[in-house]
Amino acid sequence: MIKINYENTRELQKNKEKMVLEVRDLHVTFKTYGGTVQAVRGVSFDVYQGETLAIVGESGCGKSVTSSAIMGLIPTPPGEITKGQVIFKGKELTRLSKKELRKIRGSDISMIFQDPMTALNPTLTVEEQLTEGIKQHKSISSAEAKKKAIEMMKLVGIPNPTERMKQYPHQFSGGMRQRIVIAIALMCEPELLIADEPTTALDVTIQAQILELFEEIQEKTGVAIILITHDLGVVAKIADRIAVMYAGKIIESGTKREIFYKPNHPYTQGLLHSVPRLDLKGKALEPIEGTPPDLFAPPAGCPFTARCPHAMEVCEKVMPRSESLSSTHSVDCWLLDERAEGMRLA
Amino acid sequence: MAKYIIKRFFMMVITVLVIATLTFFLMHAIPGSPFNEERGTNEAVQANLEAFYGLDEPLYVQYGMYLKRIATFDFGPSIKNPTQSVNDLLSRGFPISFELGMITIIVALVSGIILGVVAALRHNGIIDYVAMTVAVLGISIPNFVLATLIIQKFAVDWQLLPAATWSSPAHMVLPTLALATGPMAIIARLTRSSMLEVLTQDYIKMAKAKGLSPLKIVFKHALRNALMPVVTILGTLLAGILTGTFVIEKIFAIPGMGKYFVESINNRDYPVIMGTTVFYSTILVFMLFLVDIAYSLLDPRIKLAAKGGE
Amino acid sequence: MKQPKTENQSSSQQIPDEWFKPIKKDREKAENVVRPSLSYWHDAWRRLVRNKLAMSGLIFLIFLSLMAIFGPVFSPHSASDINLPNQNQPPSTTHFFGTDELGRDVFTRTWYGARISLFVGLAAALIDFFIGVIYGGVAGYKGRRTDSIMMRIIEILYGLPYLLVVILLLVVMGPSLTTIIIALTVTGWIGMARIVRGQVLQIKNYEFIVASQSFGAKTSRIIRKNLLPNTMGPIIVQMTLTVPTAIFAEAFLSFLGLGIQAPHASWGVMANDALSTILSGHWWRLFFPAFFISFTMFAFNVLGDGLQDALDPRLRK
Question: Which protein family is named in the record (chain B) (predicted)?
């Protein structure tokens, strides 16, 4: 169920000048035996301090690849960033050497993985896994690192941090492990946190707790969060802005209010109709029929054409341009062209 | 942890007992007396001999005596050579065989792990391809074939190293090489595949995301987990190395325990056969026990399982 | 990157107005194009054929089997006839692989050796398979206490050094081909039993799924499509890898003088006989048995590896 929470939609304009991350026209491809997969095909977005940007899409739409590209974790080969820039606080990350990139990774930009059961090394104590990053990045004594680790364990809500730090991951429950993963990500006080499906592997009740934890942390530290998810419920709860990805492209982006109440792209509309909502009672759930296109050979036009209920000839042939509906809301869809006036549904 | 060790220890004792019992009854299942074949032994001498070795007692008494002797590690005198006891043979041969075995397993472990890790890190590269072809060859060439090849090349053709006996470090090179190649190949293959598996794990991605250096990721995060399967097969490898010492000692004329064992079989020297078998098995089972404990020290999850099993 | 550059190049003016009309929806098009479904075995075979090393192993083994069957038949020389004046002849057109110190033809003896090696290997693999299936099947099927007792027994047997047990049995039963095969299978079935038990436990789960969903008629399909590939894969691989172990054990024992006895020609016996020739330079006497032991084991190992890759359902996409 989606319950849209508007309380945390902050004044975005206020933070405009504090841009943390700028992604411009990012292209990522993977060479496989079957051919070249164009996993990300020209993605652009900004992330500002203190906000949560949710990147939403079906599996395989390129959202996780985008996050790996930001972290510089695309395995090369087979993967490659073929075009575009990732600018973090004025630094072009795609041009940095591996060594320079390592200095940023885990220190200024951190990442949280999907499955807490596998994200922690089973043979190292929690303390070791908490402190090794900060010891690598900052000249800090073991005692100080440990103090910081205890502080972080407290922040993420793990009781008895001093004793529990000496334990191994298998001695914690799934929810607790995800808290540890979050604590590890926060150790170096990053300015950007990338959370890749951070709640997908968890029970629903634990999911809610972890999401609350994200909000709390953001309030306390002002960290910018990129939330990668396919779960609109999660998005409704903590996102400030939303980018909807489809077949390696962002097809619509806007504030949470704009996306949930004024979705303009048929795919976004389809997504919203396919999940139960409290505020739209009485409407039947409609799954989007069909599957995303093969990214080995992406279509020339809009990738959603084959599944789109309003598809026109132009959609098949030409890629739609990005149309701005407001300073925050943009949509890539031919329905917004004046010549498609008659096609638009009320 | 203590409980786990006690449990494993108990299993070890049972295994040794099974082996000892099996050996005893197998040996006594052989028709006739071991002295029958001896020419020139008349009935009286034979009866005397049987009394000397306790063979005239009922089987269960013999079995009891046998177990008692095993418990005190006294395997009695040899039949073919009554002036020396089995214990003499063991104390003379075992240190040499032990040395050969230990050097071999260390060489095999170190080189196998290095080869496996390098192959995994260069997955699908030339190094990987060459290393793995060499490894399959190493598994496929029997140690006695390899040993003769090595002697032919290194000792006869090139005259680089001595080919027989166990008298100096130079003498140890060729036998160790012949014996270590097979286990090394097995370790290399296993290390490679388990390393490849570990490298795809999320915690490796997480270590990368922390900005750790590649060396740290490999040695601290990947290797320890990748070596777990290697530890589990150590027992089997040790058994293979142990039986391998039989042929290696034969080929290189090394006066180790394997040589005495093979001789005792060819001579039908039953006390020696029984004594060496039980001794070998005990050593092996004890090694397996140590390997188990080493494994539980390496993998923190096992400790808890043993504790939680209460 | 060949990226459609429509975004920048074609402004909306260049796009004809008539394109802004709805297209006929072809629902079929929206559906996923299903990858042509190949049967499991077909698919596995295709993967195996692509593995060059495994295929060369297979071809070598076919060649070896043919030579083992027909080689001695076509050879004008016997494997055991002693011909002293003809001793230690180097390879020539009459004796392709030369002769040994008793003047016996190494070429003929090599193929006799192949018979013994292949026979020992296949017999051991088959017997292991039957004992393993019965033991593992009972343990897995009965479950509970039967299972735990049976597995405990396996655990104890697993601790036994198998070549030592084999040697003991050979001492007791006297060296012969039958003894070697029996001795090899005394401990050899353990690995197979473990695998079969694991597979049976899986089957039980499948049965549960089948029953609970009352698929009824589709049971046979499930067995064919899911169960057999999953269970047969590991078993076939295990059998393939048992063969070289058994071949090695036979050669090893014969080499020690504990296995096949003269005048029979086993590769291990031939290698043992030839050991003394290292200094005399009669290289062919050691080379041929050594080469064939090694290459047969190599062929089985690479074939086993190839099968493992080809049959592993996890690799299917």
Answer: Belongs to the binding-protein-dependent transport system permease family.
Q: How far apart are CA B190 and CA B230, in angstroms?
A: 7
Of C164, C255, C301, the CB nearest to B277: C164
Q: Tokens 């388990």 label which residue?
A: B194
Tell whether C297 lies on the interface with B, counting CB pairs under 8 A. yes
Residue extents of the structural domains in chain B: 98-308
Q: How far is CA C205 from CA A49, B51, B112, C208, in A?
A: 51, 61, 39, 5
Tell me the C-alpha distance between A338 and A343, whole Å. 10
Distance CA A271, CA A287 (A): 8
What pairing do the DSSP bridges indicate for beta strands A52-56 and A109-112?
unpaired
Instruction: Decide if B142 and C248 are in contact by the 8 Å CB cutoff.
Output: yes
- Scanning every residue of chain B, which has its alpha carbon at the shortest distance from the alpha carbon of C275? B148
| Strand A109-112 versus strand A192-196 pairing type | parallel
Radius of gyration of chain A (CA): 21
Nearest to B29 among C172, C255, C290 (CB): C172
Chains that touch A (3 or more CB pairs under 8 A): B, C
Q: Which of B96, B97, B75 is nearest to B87 (CA)?
A: B75
Are A102 and B213 a contacting pair at CB < 8 A? Answer: yes
Residue A8 Cα distances to A5, A18, A21, A24, C126, angstroms: 7, 18, 21, 27, 69
Is 50 exceeded by the pLDDT of residue B305?
A: no
The shortest C-alpha distance from A132 to chain C (Å) reads 34
Q: How many CB atoms lie within 10 A of CB C6?
A: 17
3.90.1030.10, 2.70.70.10, 3.40.50.1220, 1.10.3720.10: which CATH number matches B98-308?
A: 1.10.3720.10
Instruction: Give the C-alpha separation, A31 to C222, whole Å.
Output: 35
SS3 C214: coil
| Burial (0-12, 13-18, 19+ Cβ within 10 Å), C314 | exposed
**Does the domain made of C51-72+96-311 have the CATH classification 1.10.3720.10?**
yes
Facing B243 at nearest CB: one of C159, C163, C278: C163
The DSSP line for B230-271 is HHHHHHHHHHHHHHHHHHHHHHTT--SHHHHHHHHHHHT-HH
DSSP A132-158: HHHHHHS---HHHHHHHHHHHHHHTT-
CA–CA separation, B104 and C271 (whole Å): 24
Residue C229 near residue C303 (C-beta atoms within 8 A):
no
User: A204, A48, A205, A179: which is closest to A119 by C-alpha?
Assistant: A179
Mean of per-residue pLDDT scores for chain B: 80
Looking at this predicted complex, what is its ipTM?
0.79
Whether C28 and chain A come into contact, CB under 8 Å, resolves to no
pLDDT digits (tens, 9 = 90+) for C215-234: 454 555 555 555 566 677 77
Rg for chain B, CA atoms, rounded:
24
Q: Across C92-239, where does the E strand assignment appear? A: none
Give per-residue pLDDT as tens, B15-65: 888 888 888 887 777 765 555 555 455 666 666 666 666 666 777 888 888
Alpha helices in chain B (DSSP H): 2-29, 43-52, 59-71, 86-121, 126-140, 143-150, 169-199, 202-209, 214-216, 223-226, 228-251, 257-267, 270-298, 300-308
Q: Average pLDDT in the B266-288 region? A: 81
Q: Provide the whole-model pTM.
A: 0.79
> How sure is the predictor about C45, in pLDDT bands with cuts at 50, 70 and 90?
confident
Do A132 and B300 lie within an 8 Å CB cutoff? Answer: no
Regions of chain A where pLDDT drops below 70: 1-17, 33-34, 277-285, 340-346
Q: Which chain B residues are closer than 8 Å to A73 by Cβ?
A: 205, 208-209
pLDDT for position C59: 93
- Superfamily name with CATH number, domain A9-108+188-277+285-340: P-loop containing nucleotide triphosphate hydrolases (3.40.50.300)
**What does pLDDT average to over chain C?**
74
